[in-house]
Design goal:
The chain has 487 residues and is α/β, with parallel strands linked by helices. The chain is built from 16 helices and 16 strands. The strands form five sheets. Strands 1-2-3-4-5-7-13-14 form an eight-stranded parallel β-barrel, surrounded by four helices. Strand 9 and strand 10 form a beta hairpin. Bound molecules: 6-O-phosphono-beta-D-galactopyranose (BGP). The site of 6-O-phosphono-beta-D-galactopyranose (BGP) has 14 residues, from loops.
Length: 487
């Protein structure tokens, strides 16, 4: 047993371009799939399907409306103009690493250009420079729900094999431009989310395919993403030999509701369906049960000559994942359901829930770390963990978010047990949303995650001024003590 986090443990925070930058049409940026998401204040926050619903009509409406009022992801928290100040605040907390995504449509506005948009690259040059000043390592996500809308409209998104070439071209530009500063890369954010929100994750517009074919279309798009992932993994190893490139999974841990073998089997099935994407990116092949599923459902995935060899040869160096909550799995459909992070399950009577109904389970993080490490025997990286909550900015500029400190304290305690007692190799921990930003599933900023409060409401009104919350000072101490001082 070791008695603490290893020296050099990478403490930090995680952002996504489409949820924080704003600068929607600046610097030559093209529209992305995130710019289609409009805020639906009257839709229940647990109704992910409705919030994430995209139709050909809503795409046309988004193209016609170039404003930002109804499209919170078009304005984010204006990181595009505040990045110096924000990165200084991350530096003040002592961050070792900052996870960011590079917006594909800033670099290739339509997605299929041959030459990159220099102005888009210059923005990230500046971000990298500020990170270097603060001695913060970048961890870059290549694809985080923000593919160019042009690739959707012209090719049908990831359903088209053409998009693989565009993505590899995008990755090559980044590896060549930022290979010196960036030693940690991720391919696709939550690659498993393609079935939960196929448009955001892969540019699949459901109403453009016959309903009975939609699972085949999504598996085809997924295959193209997995091939692209192996191609950019190969490229990264060639161009930046000392870099590490990982996959990224939404860790959706399901517990059997009871010891009834049927519910144990149900939980096992749900967990296997959640992790098979990572199986492909780590073991380099589709698990047999997925191939059998394709046979049973008469799904035909076009696999080209050489694809399977690529998958096998170019697997990832580490496994990263997001963790917010856990679920129970019950065969009794009359039991109360729960929903979180666009997934659903049976409510666990032993757990409390957040203001958004996500069931809080710190021990589930320890369980998930052990499960993933035992399965993959690769270094792990927690690249998202956090609490979305209703914070109140006091007149004196303070925010007493002691509930968020409690959430993080309990999760870091369990993470520490996994590292110090359970033998898990963990590279780092980047909390989700170190600064308030736009939520992916509901386009709200009122669902606040940050250690830093941003004075802006769900309609974009506010000074956009930044305020340190109580949790800012707490996390600063955690990092300074390398995870020892959690009081
Ligand atoms: C994950 C995304 C993040 C972030 C997080 C929180 O799915 O990778 O981008 O959004 O969920 O979810 P939400 O923003 O919907 O509260």
């Amino acid at each position: 047993m070791i008695n603490g986090f290893p020296e050099g443990f990478l403490w930090g925070g995680a952002l996504a371009a489409n949820q924080c930058e704003g600068g929607y049409a600046e610097g030559g940026k093209g529209m992305s799939v995130a710019d289609v998401a409009y805020y639906k204040p009257d839709v229940d926050v647990t109704n992910f399907k409705k919030h994430n619903e995209v139709t050909s009509q809503s795409i046309q409406a988004a193209i016609a409306d170039q404003g930002v009022e109804n499209y919170p992801k078009r304005r984010g928290i204006d990181f595009y103009h505040h990045y110096k100040e924000d990165i200084e605040l991350f530096g003040e907390m002592g961050f070792k690493v900052l996870r960011i995504s590079i917006a594909w449509s800033r670099i290739f506005p339509n997605g299929d250009e041959i030459e990159p948009n220099e102005e888009g690259l210059r923005f990230y040059d500046n971000v990298m420079e500020e990170l270097a000043k603060q001695k913060i390592q970048p961890l870059v996500t290549l694809s985080h729900y923000e593919m160019p809308l042009g690739l959707v409209e012209k090719y049908g998104g990831w359903y088209s094999r053409e998009v693989i070439i565009c993505f590899v071209r995008f990755a090559r530009v980044l590896f060549e431009r930022y290979g010196r500063q960036v030693k940690y890369w991720l391919t696709f954010n939550e690659i498993d989310s393609i079935f939960r929100h196929p448009f955001t994750t892969a540019g699949i517009v459901m109403d453009r395919y016959p309903q009975e074919k939609i699972r085949e279309v999504i598996y085809q798009a997924l295959h193209h993403q997995l091939v692209a992932s192996s191609m950019v993994t190969k490229l990264c190893h060639e161009l930046i030999p000392d870099a590490k490139i990982g996959c990224m999974l939404t860790k959706l841990t399901y517990y059997p509701y009871s010891c009834n073998p049927e519910e144990v089997l149900l939980a096992q099935y749900k967990n296997r369906k959640n992790s098979f994407y990572t199986d492909v990116q780590v073991f380099g092949e589709y698990p047999r049960f997925i191939l059998q599923e394709w046979q049973h459902e008469k799904i035909t995935v076009q696999i080209e000559e050489g694809d399977l060899t690529l998958l096998k040869k170019h697997t990832v160096d580490f496994v990263s994942f997001s963790y917010y909550m856990s679920f129970a799995a019950s065969t009794d459909t009359t039991k109360e359901a729960t929903a979180g992070n666009t997934a659903t399950g049976t409510k666990n009577p032993y757990l409390e829930a957040s203001d958004w109904g996500w069931q809080i389970d710190p021990e589930g993080l320890r369980y998930s770390l052990i499960e993933l490490y035992d399965r993959y025997r690769l270094p792990l990286f927690i690249v998202e963990n956090g609490l979305g909550a209703k914070d109140v900015l006091n007149a004196d500029g303070t925010v007493e978010d002691d509930y968020r400190i409690e959430y993080f304290r309990r999760h870091i305690e369990e993470m520490k047990k996994a590292v110090c007692e359970d033998g898990v190799e963990l590279l780092g921990y980047t909390s989700w949303g170190p600064i308030d930003l736009i939520s992916a599933s509901t386009s709200q900023i009122s669902k606040r995650y940050g250690f830093i409060y941003v004075d802006c409401d769900d309609f974009g009104k506010g000074s956009f001024q930044r305020y340190r919350k109580n949790s800012f000072y707490w996390y600063q101490k955690v990092i300074a003590s390398n995870g020892e001082d959690l009081a």
